[in-house]
Design brief:
Layout lengths: L9 H12 L3 H11 L2 H18 L4 H8 L3 H13 L3 H12 L1
Helix pairs in contact: 3-5
Length: 99
């Protein structure tokens, strides 16, 4: 793990180990429904979809129309894609490879 991570902690590592132990979509639903509020899950799903669409070079207006994300949210995710750690790109590429 990169030492400069802003979220690095024993608790975060334990959480990520738990996520890595999930084996099915059903397990994911049960775990995340217990862990997060419905609003949090919907927000994370929306951000993931916005990132995917930005990587597909969709316009802000198309993304806003299809996801109901605000332009501020879209812009924030776009900045993360430009200056972040590459996490979105890595997992989106992996999930595309599996489909």
């Amino acid at each position: 793990m990169e030492q400069s991570s802003k979220i690095q902690s024993k608790e975060a590592e334990d959480l990520f180990e738990a996520v890595l132990a999930l084996e099915t979509i059903d397990e994911c639903y049960r775990f995340f429904e217990d862990l997060c509020t419905v609003k949090e899950i919907k927000a994370m799903a929306q951000r993931f979809e916005v990132a995917r669409m930005l990587l597909e070079k969709k316009t802000y207006s198309k993304i806003e129309e299809e996801t109901s994300a605000s332009t501020a949210t879209i812009s924030r995710i776009n900045r993360t894609l430009q200056y972040g750690t590459g996490g979105y790109e890595e997992i989106i590429a992996k999930t595309k490879a599996g489909n």
